[in-house]
Design goal:
heterodimer, A: mainly alpha, 66% helix, 0% strand
Chain lengths: 194, 97
Amino acid sequence: MINEECCIRSIASGSEEALKQLYLIYSDRMYNTIISYTNNAEDAEEVLQDVFITVFHTASRFKFDSSVSTWIYRIAVNKSLDLLRKRNSQKRKGLFTSLYKKDTGEIQFEISDFDHPGVEMENKEDAWLIFRAIDTLNENQKTAFILTHIEGLPQKEVGEIMNLTRQSVNSLVQRAKVKLKIELEKFYPHRGNK
Amino acid sequence: MSVDKEKWLEEKLGIITKIERAKAPEGTFTKIQQKISKQNGEHSKPRFEWVAVAAVILLAVSSNAIVVSNYFSVSEVFEPPKKDPYVISEFSLYENE
């Protein structure tokens, strides 16, 4: 078990070996979180690289006022949300007008864009619809839901990552679940009725 | 919403827990290292455009400095040329005519 604080100090002085140590500890966790936002393996890898490059360049500014884990999660969440904002603005400005629903202007995500290595083939359609529903949540609801339900972090830790109280996180998760059910009901209107 | 529907939706949401945790692709750290060294190279080596801009600015500043220093080195007092004693200044060529 390496001392993460020492590791950060070494990274701050330019040690790529220390960065590798930190990468080995956090890369899988970060990748799993990021792919829950991007729903695409290629984009998730790009964001993962960006996260650790940011860690390398900003380690000297880390003040140790939170845990290293919280700090890295914050970077990963912010980078993922940045990618989604960029992706949405590119699609809105793009030429592919067929991607939009004519009435609402809402973006339609195709199942072919969905590439999550953790999803088995037989569950792919259901998982895609759930992630599509997650994508309709606002940024805070999405982050609270992903970090608690997909990443499995305790609400207190999620609160530290999001700079919110545990109660606020709980409230965001509850609202997210209500919204997700409404969205899922739209996708499967005739299911679950006896 | 009916109880059955609610239960069914809960089950659907539960699929999330069945998703296996994704692992970072192999070779990603090498790509990170490559990007970092590329960025470091870009920071240490000034771009050609900036070198060109700096050269033009340096040229303009030094030309102005030369012009200004020449301007101040020129004597303000006009000294008339010394008279050559052998040069006849008053030619009375047509005096006897």
